[in-house]
Specification:
mainly alpha; MetI-like fold; membrane
Length: about 280
């Protein structure tokens, strides 16, 4: 007991240092977003922003269609998450609860799909988008990222931890398979669903590679792609505009995590606690 008491302050200190180390890049970005360009590129480091003002935020919103890009990212992320939750939930429920010929092969396909790097299938996916006329459209941005093998596997593992006795009791009371899913499985898997939403939103919102290939016009760019195009004459990067744009891009992720924080943490620790 005494040893644990002595170790507790050390653990707290390690956690605080690790948290500060993780937050340091974000804090630098936040500080720089309020500074003029000369202060950002200066070699003299200051903990607090010099000549702090909101001019950078005003300028970036005036010079670039930030609202349009923000809406593009919101539409892509929102629709992708909605489709992801529908398709992946039904797929995970089928793999976790329903017996059918070829189930083992399907499970192997889901596992293999997680192993294959996205870069391997980018070229054929892009060729499909060109042939279907989906380049520079919302369909081309959304549908290829609407299904996630990892989320299917993650939800399947969560559903399998729910006792089958609950399914049987519900079916005795007259529930169908769909009724069991919506009345038994999903209410008991809220932490896993919340975790899936947060993870999927982070992936889609921050994705650069696929939107950079599919979005050709300025109007169809998402925020990460648009911010990467910021450049002044002579090839210099306007860090005084990139930083506030990056901060604005981070706000939805931070808000969503704060809103679903307890579900996210519970979903990630659920397997460790029950397993």
């Amino acid at each position: 007991m005494r040893k644990n008491r002595l170790l507790y302050p050390a653990r707290v200190l390690i956690i605080l240092l690790a948290s500060l180390f993780s937050l340091f890049p974000f804090l630098i970005m936040l500080k720089s977003s309020f500074e003029p360009y000369t202060s950002i590129v200066s070699l003299d480091f200051h903990l607090l922003p010099e000549n702090a003002s909101l001019d950078n935020y005003v300028t970036v919103c005036q010079e670039y269609p930030i609202l349009r890009w923000f809406c593009n990212s919101a539409v892509v992320a929102g629709v992708a998450i909605a489709l992801n939750m529908v398709v992946d939930v039904f797929a995970a429920y089928t793999l976790a609860r329903i017996e059918y010929p070829g189930k083992k092969a399907t499970n192997m396909m889901v596992l293999c799909a997680q192993i294959v790097p996205v870069q391997v299938i980018v070229v054929p996916m892009y060729q499909m988008m060109v042939e279907w006329g989906w380049v520079d459209t919302y369909r081309g941005l959304i549908l290829p990222v609407a299904i996630s093998p990892f989320i299917i596997f993650f939800l399947k593992q969560s559903f399998m931890q729910i006792p089958r006795a609950l399914d049987e009791a519900a079916m005795i009371d007259g529930c169908s398979r769909i009724g069991v899913l919506f009345r038994v499985i999903l209410p008991n898997a809220v932490p896993a669903l919340g975790t899936s939403v947060v993870l999927k939103f982070m992936w889609v919102w921050g994705d650069y590679m696929w939107p950079s290939l599919v979005s050709k016009s300025t109007e169809m760019r998402t925020l990460p792609v648009a911010i990467a195009t910021f450049q002044r004459a002579g090839g210099t990067y306007p860090w005084d505009l990139i930083m506030p744009a990056a901060v604005l891009s981070s706000v939805p992720i931070v808000l969503l995590f704060l809103f679903l924080q307890k579900y996210f943490i519970a979903g990630l620790t659920e397997g460790a606690v029950k397993g």
